[in-house]
C-alpha cells in the first residue's frame, strides 16, 4: 500500500530495500494514470512505493532537479539510485524496475 511522506519522514522510510518515491500533484493528469500502476507494481515486485505531493513539499523535487511530473526517485538502501520522469505503461515500467531489482525479477 502506497504511503504519503514528507521531507521530514522521507529519510527513515527509504533506509532499506528498494523504495520508489513518486512525485505528483493533484492537478497532474498523467500522475492520476501512474498512481494505480505504482500501487499495482508495489504488490507485484519486492519494493515499496511512497508518494509526495509536490504542491505541499517542493524540496525533494528541487533537490533532484525535477521540472516535470510524474517523476519517481528510486532509492536502494537509503541512497538515491535512479530518477525516472514521465508516464509509462505498466509493462514498460515493470520491466525496467525488474532490471533494477536484478535478474530474478526480469520476467
Automatic annotation (TrEMBL):
Keywords: Disulfide bond, Electron transport, Redox-active center, Transport. Gene3D superfamilies: Glutaredoxin. Residues 1-102 form the Thioredoxin domain. The keyword Transport applies. The keyword Disulfide bond applies. Belongs to the thioredoxin family. This is Thioredoxin.
